[in-house]
């Protein structure tokens, strides 16, 4: 799959792209890309934007042809976070709660998705945008990308982004970002566990292609089982996590695709996955 075949100029994508008010959806060969398309608001996570992302994210999870989901954006700012017009004091507590619960529900569904969800970042990510990016299963960004949580500058501590950031990053570096609002570079984000991979801007599509090929070479059922358990075991004490992991390994070994994978290895051939 070449860059031209994968990205937005593809004829296949053109046949299956959907235009929405705030996003574009591209579907091709098992890959779903949700692209934030509201550069005039710096791709702010308005209720309408988050609802569109949610609808695209959660569509047809049962379809075994779906292999991964990418969340990307256009413009120099990947996302500036929440729309301040929707959370100002004049909006009231009910509206403010609705906004924060919407993003919380969105990131919960990223975890629940049976396929890998990958953030593709090429630009500045701020506040709630950091929360969304950091909640993805993988984050691939360019060297020019930066990450920041500057809301304390306007009297609002980034408590919701802090939930996921504190689970990925060393606490002192996490608090450095939250307390000062200073941005960190892509390389620092990689160093401190906020992103998975950093590449040059020209190599971003090539890196995404490499990841997608690797994911699609594996059993969807196995990756779904593994992803679900990965997040569940994070909340368990170590001994209990190991006990549950043993049970999950046995469950995995009894999948049809596990039988096929082991047979194909012994027979020195490529596996023929049923994704079951």
UniProtKB/TrEMBL annotation:
Protein name: Enoyl-CoA hydratase domain-containing protein 3, mitochondrial
Functional description taken from the UniProt entry: May play a role in fatty acid biosynthesis and insulin sensitivity.
Keyword Transit peptide listed: yes
GO cellular component: mitochondrion
Keywords, alphabetical: Fatty acid metabolism, Isomerase, Lipid metabolism, Mitochondrion, Transit peptide
Places the protein is found: Mitochondrion
PANTHER family from the UniProt entry: ENOYL-COA HYDRATASE DOMAIN-CONTAINING PROTEIN 3, MITOCHONDRIAL, PTHR43602
Gene Ontology terms, MF aspect: hydro-lyase activity; isomerase activity
Record's keyword annotation contains Isomerase: yes
Domain of life: Eukaryota
N-terminal signal peptide: none
GO biological process: fatty acid metabolic process
SUPFAM superfamilies per UniProt: ClpP/crotonase (SSF52096)
């Amino acid at each position: 799959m070449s860059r031209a075949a994968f990205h937005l100029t593809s004829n296949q994508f053109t046949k299956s792209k959907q235009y929405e008010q705030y996003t574009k959806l591209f579907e091709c060969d098992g890959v779903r890309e949700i692209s934030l398309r509201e550069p005039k608001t710096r791709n702010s996570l308005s209720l309408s934007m988050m609802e569109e992302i949610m609808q695209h994210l959660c569509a047809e999870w049962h379809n075994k042809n779906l292999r991964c989901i990418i969340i990307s954006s256009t413009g120099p700012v990947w996302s500036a976070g929440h729309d301040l017009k929707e959370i100002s004091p004049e909006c009231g507590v009910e509206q403010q709660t609705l906004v924060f619960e919407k993003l919380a529900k969105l990131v919960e569904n990223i975890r629940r998705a049976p396929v890998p969800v990958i953030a593709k970042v090429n630009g500045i990510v701020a506040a709630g945008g950091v929360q969304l990016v950091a909640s993805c299963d993988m984050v691939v960004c360019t060297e020019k990308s930066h990450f920041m949580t500057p809301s304390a500058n306007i009297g609002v501590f980034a408590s919701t982004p802090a939930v996921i950031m504190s689970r990925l990053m060393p606490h002192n570096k996490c608090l450095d970002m939250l307390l000062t609002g200073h941005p960190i570079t892509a390389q620092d984000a990689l160093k401190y566990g906020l992103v998975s991979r950093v590449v040059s801007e020209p190599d971003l599509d090539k890196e995404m292609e490499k990841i997608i090929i690797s994911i699609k070479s594996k059993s969807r059922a196995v990756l779904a089982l593994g992803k679900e358990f990965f997040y569940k075991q994070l909340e368990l004490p170590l001994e209990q996590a190991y006990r549950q992991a043993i049970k999950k390994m046995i469950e995995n070994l009894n999948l049809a695709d596990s039988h096929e994978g082991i047979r194909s290895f012994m027979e020195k051939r490529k596996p023929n996955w049923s994704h079951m």
